[in-house]
Structure formats: C-alpha cells, structure tokens
Amino acid sequence: MTVRVAINGYGTIGKRVADAVSLQDDMRVAGIVKTSPSFELDLAQQRKFPIYANTKENMALLQQKGISVQGTTEDLLDQADIVIDGTPSKIGKENKEKLYIPRKIKAILQGGEKAPTVECSFNASNNYQQSYGKNYVRVVSCNTTGLSRSLGAIKKALGITSARVTLIRRAADPFDDETGPINAIAPDPITIPSHHGPDVKTIIPDLDIVTMAVIVPTTLMHLHTLNIQLPKTTTAQEIQDLFAKTPRILVVESDKRISSTASIMEMARDLCRPRGDLQELAVWDKSISVVNGNELFFTQAVHQESIVVPDNIDCIRAMMQLTDDPLTSMKKTDQSLGLKKWW
Hints:
Layout: E1 3-8, H1 12-22, E2 27-34, H2 39-46, E3 51-53, H3 56-64, E4 71-72, H4 73-77, E5 82-85, H5 91-103, E6 106-109, E7 120-122, H6 124-127, E8 136-139, H7 142-157, E9 162-170, E10 186-187, H8 196-201, E11 209-216, E12 222-229, H9 236-244, E13 249-252, H10 261-270, E14 281-284, E15 289-291, E16 295-302, H11 309-319, H12 326-337
Helix pairs in contact: 1-11, 11-12
C-alpha cells in the first residue's frame, strides 16, 4: 500500500515533511497547498510536487506568476488518503471542521493546535499505538517532542518521581524578520507553570512535571535545563549510555568544541543534513550529572524547525495502520532520513 499524503501548508514544517514523505517507499506526496508565490513554491516545482492553492482566487494569482497549479485544496483532498496540516496555529482546527471531517479524510495537526482538537496527541517514542487507526491526531510541538523523548526514555528505564524543567526558547525561526524580542529576555508566560508541562502529559499522562519558560533573542534552537528526581539511584554514565541507545537522541561531545546551540547547528551543516536540520534531540554529555544518587541534571537542545518531522512520518504509518510496531516505523523513517543509528 502506498499512502497518498497531502501537505496543506508548505511552510517551515510542511516543506520538511513533504521532503521526508518523498523518501519513504510506502507513501508519496499527493500535492502541496500554498497561498501565495514564494521561493518555496519554486523549490516545490523543482521537486515535482503537484501544487494546489487554498482558494480559486489564489489559484489564479499563482497561475499569473507562471506557477502550474492543479486545483484547490478541496481538489487535492479528494485525491489523498491523509493530510498533514502545516498551517499557522488555530487554522488547523478550522480546516479540520470545514475541510477534513466533511470529506472523511484523516488529518495530522501540529503542536500549535490545542490537544482537545484531536482524538489524541502523538510522539513516536512514547505513545505510537494510541494513534493506530485514528482519524485526527496532533503531533506535539518541538519542545514537547524533545521533552517527551528524554523524559520518556528515563521513565521507562528508571522511573521518575518528579521533573522540573526550564525552557530557554528561541524568539523566532531564522527566516522570521518580524518577531522579537530583539534585545530582551522575556518570561513566557510570566506566570508559572508554563503550558509545556501539561502538554508533555498528553504524551506521558502520569508524569509529575512542572515547567517554566523564557524567550531569548536567538533563532537557532531551544535549550532546556532539567532537574529530575528518580526513585532509584543511578550514575551519569548510565544515563549517557541510555541516551546513546535511545532513538532520536544524540549525545554531543563537549570536548569536540560543541559548546553551544550555534556549534550544534554547525555540526548539522557539516554532516550535510538537508537545510542544516538536526531532527534528533541533542544532549550535552558533560551536562549529565547525578547528585545524591538520585537527583539527575542535564541540558538538551531542540532544533525547532525539524525535530517533529520524523514523528509526522511515523504518525502517518500509525493512523494508516501500515505497522503497529513503533520501532519498525521509527527504524524505517530514521534510515530514510539518515539519522543517528540506534538499531
């Protein structure tokens, strides 16, 4: 079975998921939806993705710019089995009600949508099977994906008594020249806790987690500092070994001059990752420390533009019932994307 995947919204996430879909042997890009001319549409044409517009008016606009347009979003949905909604926050919910439900097409929304909008939230490492055969699922945000990977691995191996996390969030994506702050550090939100902890609980419901967050003037990555109380003793080396064998977690070596989010991104570029993306969660080896035998600390970095991409691919397999085994899907996805070898 080859799944026909529609990409509604060809932006930061949508274009990356489209490229990832095109690398799979059990799915293909049925088409992408864009609202206005852009360099991204030029790339979509080079990749031979069928192009659709969200309205007839925008379809005419794109055609005036010399772009070959196959039709509107509705036309694309009639030819697809499932849709990845990569539209801005809150638009996905509207699309679900107006477009997807009436056409009885399965849809994957992104982390900008609220959890009650869908049947369940998704993270391949922790609750793959919960989305098996479902119709409407949300792949959680970049920060929630990163926290779910590391906390999920620890919880499965050792258990977690409590987790306290501070998120240092990037202000905007690299292309965004309008969002701030430019010269400030802003609590996000000012009240504590932040929404990130409850969002992680949509993936790991019985986790005691409290989060707080600040926004800083950088565009490269998010950074998290974690303080975890464990129910049993461990060592820093045991945690490092655990992360080293965990899918989609990359332990970066501080001694190799990987000392910041900038050097992590430089490493991804030197690895010749497409767009310089790092779809794994990065954990600094020397940040991992254990105090009093059961109090764990470490620091991790999340590439916000790409970390959710492999989870979108696995979510397609779960919802379309291509395999009920998460590791089978994750291995297939990670091999196709050239991610860290863990199998």
